[in-house]
Structure formats: C-alpha cells, structure tokens
Write a structure and sequence with these properties.
The protein is mostly helical. 81% of the residues lie in helices and 0% in strands. α2 runs antiparallel to α3.
Length: 149
C-alpha cells in the first residue's frame, strides 16, 4: 500500500512539474505573440500615419474613405510583393510586367494620398487598373495563365 501511495505521489509531482513547464511555455508563447502583435501594430500605425498626414482638415467621411483606401493599398502592395516573390522562387510562370505595374500603381496612389489628393488617387487607381487588365488580357500570353498549373 505504501509503494502504491508513493508511486501516486511521485506521479502527481511529475505531473505538477510538467504542468508548470507547460504553463511557463504557454506564458513564453503569449509573450512572443504579444511582442509580434505589438511590432506589427506599431509598423502599421507608422505607415498609416505617414500616408495620412493631411487628413485632419477633411470631413469625416473623406477621412474614413482615405483610411480604408490606404489600408487596402498597403495590404495589396504586400500581397502583390509576396506573389512576385513566390513567382521568382518557384516554378510558376508569372507575368512580371503586370504585377510590377500594379505595385507602381499602388505606390503612386499612396503618394497621391500623402499629398492630399484623395479623389485623384481613387480615380487614378480605378482607371489605371481597368486599363492594365484590359491591355494585359489582349497583350499577355496564354503561357502565363493559371490554366497551366
């Protein structure tokens, strides 16, 4: 009976140590997550505030539209950059001209927003992407389509 009791106590102590290690590990992970989330939010706030310098004098609806436009442009730029990098390092045939042009359009839009020309940026974005996609469907080759996967 004593051996059984000692075995249970030892098992309980081992489980308690493992639980403490698991809790420490979870605490470590939560700290790392917090650091990463803080880093991403700080970078995004700096980018956001950099492009929306002249926004305080505009009406509220223009402020909301400009904020949404900047967020979508920044996300689109990074997604497009990621797509280009994946195309470079993998065997995907990619039309680099189209994606580099999209990146340049997005950067031009962000510069226009930075200068306070919100309507010009929105119109330029819409018209340039429509023209780019219309031209790329006519000029682009079939080899760069997604049907070749």
């Amino acid at each position: 009976m004593k051996h059984l009791l000692r075995g249970l106590v030892r098992t309980f102590i081992a489980l308690h140590k493992q639980m403490a290690n698991i809790q420490e590990f979870n605490l470590f992970l939560s700290r790392k997550k917090r650091v990463i989330i803080d880093l991403v939010t700080n970078i995004s706030k700096r980018l956001f505030n950099y492009f929306l310098v002249n926004i305080n004098t505009e009406p509220f609806i223009i402020q909301l539209k400009a904020k949404a436009f900047v967020i979508l442009n920044i996300m689109g730029f990074f997604v497009n950059l990621l797509y280009i990098l994946i195309g470079i390092f993998s065997k995907i045939s990619l039309d680099y001209f189209t994606h580099i042009t999209i990146s340049l359009i997005i950067l031009t839009n962000l510069i226009l927003v930075y200068r306070g020309m919100y309507k010009v940026a929105g119109n330029f974005f819409t018209i340039s992407l429509i023209l780019l996609f219309a031209l790329s469907t006519n000029i682009g080759s079939i080899e760069n389509s997604f049907d070749k996967f």
